[in-house]
Amino acid sequence: MRAIQMVDLKAQYARIKTEVDAAIQDVIDNTAFINGKAVTDFTASLTAYMGAKHVIPCANGTDALQIAMMALDLQPGDEVITPSFTYVATTEVIALLRLQPVFVEVDPRTFCVDPAAIEKAITPKTKAIVPVHMFGQVADMEAIQDIAKRHNLYVIEDTAQAIGADYTFSNGTTKKAGTIGTIGTTSFFPSKNLGCYGDGGAIFTNDDALATRLKMIANHGQSKRYYHDLVGCNSRLDSMQAAVLNCKLPHLDEYAAARRKAADYYDKAFANHPKIKTPYRSPDCNHVFHQYTLVLEGVDRDGLNAFLAENGIPSMIYYPVPAHRQKMFDAFGGAAFDLKITDWLTERVISLPMHTELADEQLSLITKKVLEFINKG
């Protein structure tokens, strides 16, 4: 049996090695390392796949969020509502731009931001909502969009963990995660469902004027070389990463299916266990399982984490310290937020290996060892 990895990128690469190697060699042969044909081709392919009007590639997912907020011309002191139960990049850019993060609760079933909590947090200073499609499941975007329209707010989707997921509205309309709000953002960090072999990101919008502004900001604020109309930054997806992504994009739905198959195995193994809550799957979306995250009750979570490591099984705790409790947000009043559900989750969640190459024998060992530890406790 292969060694179990949290994310097995080596085995995934082996399946597409020939095409990836050829694509990278083509970039080297053509020496168009920045804004080359690979970037143009990938942008077109991703635009078609997402069903978005505009896709703007950039250097990473954090830049994507920052550029999105810059393009909306948010001003220092403007309030941005965001979950605290998320990776820090989501909230970090809010602080970086001197905006005011307003941390709200998540739904304990989906791990995504709770629309009711958003509604309660809105003030005259609120300008935007940043829903995070956590662990591969799409937030309740119909409710969030309704709130945003009623209060004239922007919606910036953080789709770093849910690229490829579909969301279905009550009228039957289906859209890709990241194409529903004002702007969508994603990351191509290697471990993501669509990951490159370095850093990368992208921004999505259906607004023509906003797309122009996003492109300018990502390129030093210029629409014409050496003519800078906006304060921007330098955020580019390089050609080699685009070449890799263009090879992997046609496999994205296949990758999601493999992740769901592994999730089905886990679900069956842990079904009805009184101390284990398996991931909820909202009927409004097709969960793409960036992570497979359990909620444990009456279990020594850290002890399980250590026990699995001793048996050659990696596991991760996402996230041990929520954003509102991070020191970086002390100056923004982070400690003043009372988020009982978020705090409750951070003490109980654990994520098991989840990727496209998990074999049944690996899944069997993982589930056996998880149950062994919990049942003996």
Would you mind describing this structure in some detail?
There is one protein chain. With 377 residues, the protein is α/β, with parallel strands linked by helices. It has 12 helices and 14 strands. The protein has helices spanning 9-30, 37-50, 61-71, 88-96, 115-121, 141-151, 208-218, 239-248, 252-270, 301-310, 340-346, 360-376, and strands at residues 54-58, 79-83, 100-104, 126-129, 154-158, 166-168, 174-176, 183-187, 201-205, 222-224, 227-228, 276-277, 292-296, 349-352. The strands form 4 sheets. A 7-stranded mixed β-sheet has the order 1-9-8-5-4-2-3, sandwiched between helices. A 3-stranded antiparallel β-sheet has the order 12-13-14, with no helix packed on it. The protein has a two-stranded antiparallel sheet with strand order 6-7. Strand 4, helix 6 and strand 5 (154-158) form a beta-alpha-beta unit. Helix 2 runs parallel beside helix 8 (239-248) and helix 3 (61-71) crosses helix 7. The model has no long low-confidence stretch (mean pLDDT 97).
The major β-sheet equals:
7 strands, mixed
Low-confidence stretches: none
User: Helix proportion of residues, in percent?
Assistant: 25-40%
- Side-by-side strand order of the widest sheet: 1-9-8-5-4-2-3
Structural class based on helices, strands and sheet pairing = alpha/beta
Shape: globular
Give the oligomeric state of the chains in this entry, treating copies of one chain as homo and distinct chains as hetero: single chain
Number of helices: 12
Nearest-integer average pLDDT: 97
